[in-house]
Model the fold of this input.
Amino acid sequence: MNRVLSLAAAFICAGALGVAGVVSSSHAKEKIKVGFIGPLTGGTSANGLGGRNSADLAVRLRNVDAKARYEYEMVALDDECKPNVGVQQATKLATDKEIISAATHYCSAVAIATVDVYHKFGLPVIVWGAVLPDITYRNKYAEVHRVNGTMINQNERNAELLSSLGYKTFAVIHDTTDYGKGHNKYFSEALAKHGGKIVGTFGVTSDQQDFSAELTQIKSLNPEAIYFGGLTPIGVRIRGQMDKLGLNSVLFDGTSGIKSDSYIDGLGTLAEGSLSFIEGAPTERLPGGKFFLEKYNAQNYPNPPEAYGGFSFAAMNLILDTIEEVGPDRKKVQATLNKVKDRDSIVGKITFDDHGQNTVAIITAFVVQDGKWVVWEDSEYASGKRKLPGQK
Amino acid sequence: MDLGLVAQYTMNGLMLGMMYALVAVGFTLFFGVLDVIKFSHGDVLTVGAFTALASFIGLQSIGLTSDAVELLAMLVAAIGAMALLGALIARAFILPLRSAPALNTLLITLMLGTVLREAVRLFYPDGANPKPFPRLLPADSINIGNFNLRLDNAILLTAGALVIVGLQLLLNRTKLGLAIRAVAQDEETAKTMGVNFNAIVLITFAIGSALAAFAGLINGLYYNEINFGIGLYLGVVGFSAAIIGGLGSIYGAILGGFLFAGLQTIGAVALPFASAYKDVFAFAVVIALMAWRPTGLIPEKLSERV
Done:
């Protein structure tokens, strides 16, 4: 009997010691949970997976950093690029009190649907890929931030570049969806700042086939450039029909909506000299792109980071920096994020305005040169070797 | 407004009107012989345009580069294939449903149109994206003030007009035309006079669908771009044009097509609000016209009134 008891006691002691051992080793670093949401399945999953891997990379790099105060665990959820699913996942994340902060959403429709959830449950988030201005600007939620730019930044860059090239008069064609209307609004505002003039604005449906009436009217207004806020299919038609009406000395100034290879495939040589702008930049051109790609490739992720991977990394890194600074407390993290100013990151400086929007977001201009979208700064148009249509 | 601009608008309107008229004539032919509305008509146009594009790519891959030969081959392939498809549709879906309510024909052709359209989107390589259509006509142009007259547009317009005149001659000057008109006027009497009813119906559907293929080709050459959705819109417009013109009347369909194009051009140019509303304007006028002349501007000669 005695032997049994002492054996049991020995076991209990050993168990207790073991537990103590585990506890003491985890006491070395407190474990903190952070979240990530993006489209991990479905049509846009390439971008979602690239974003998830990039955020994961930020966490892994932090966990091997001996100076880090905490150990981090990332909870990655799939919003399927569907608003209803996104709201469920956002709620799941926001109601889990162990999650301190999160990098969220690539799809604008999902991001705009979830801002109320984050606001209601007080989870500070940084949007890493969605570009709709309303996500940060429709409400003034202290919880919501964004590292990437919006169509506002895109149009500011557009107006600035064209004004510097000497274009003064524009005709605007935009589709009548929120996307096209937004572009029209922000471009008109930006252009006014640079002293450009809009001689005519034409709203068109997003499946219109014939633009000869609009273009004939534009011809009589004689602008130096046609600004187009819309997507590739009608972009191809408008540029093609400009040729039919002899409008080849007018610049075709597009937006992110036509930055696709099918724009060039659809037009052939007529695409030459068309412009487009995107929020963000090719990863290798980001200020810290080389460092990021090196680290990313070292982890052997099965998918590439894609266009917004760098932004996802920057968002997660900013979250981790903030937790390191103020500790695992949602309120404090949020307050600190709201004050972020001139913070260095791999996507350049980050400064959040009073809506949590990064105001110095990076924008890249592209021009079609010899059948390819070429970054403006690298093109022969920028170097002056070639001239854009209508350029003086 | 200066004269050059007016000329330009007129030219744009005429090109549009020609395409609408060619589609509308198809609707009116089908309605004439069988009293059916064939809603897949617009999508036959799409398939025709894609057939032309596919035959162009085929010719390119065997190394043929003569524009004229390519154009001819595309024309023959598209028109031939669509005439066959039209006859097939009539044989397989429309004739068997003759004794069924007219709604059934409407529904079956509506669904068939969706099948054709989606088939192009799914099975044509990369069919969901707009496809560049080759420029095969000389692109010389003359500028007269603000008016830019392009040789290719002039050729297309002339070709369209010739086809319509040809159709007129076929219907009014040949035995086949007589048979088609006889069937349209009175099926029973035509049959007792020895007209092969089924054959005439199939031929009529073949002619109508060939016209759609021709319109598809014109559409491709004019815009240098086709996509799987072109037929849907042209179908709706062609149908409306046939109705305002007076279903069953060839002249009415032509008039309707040009009228619709004119309304769209006016809607985009002369109205003070955004050109986004030009379709709203054009269709609103169509509604008003329908209220004013329920049987169309030029009604079928023997329209049944009960």
Observations:
- Chain A touches chain B at residues 176, 201-205, 207, 209-210, 212-214, 216-217, 219-220, 232-233, 236-237, 240-241, 244-246, 262, 265-268 (CB under 8 Å).
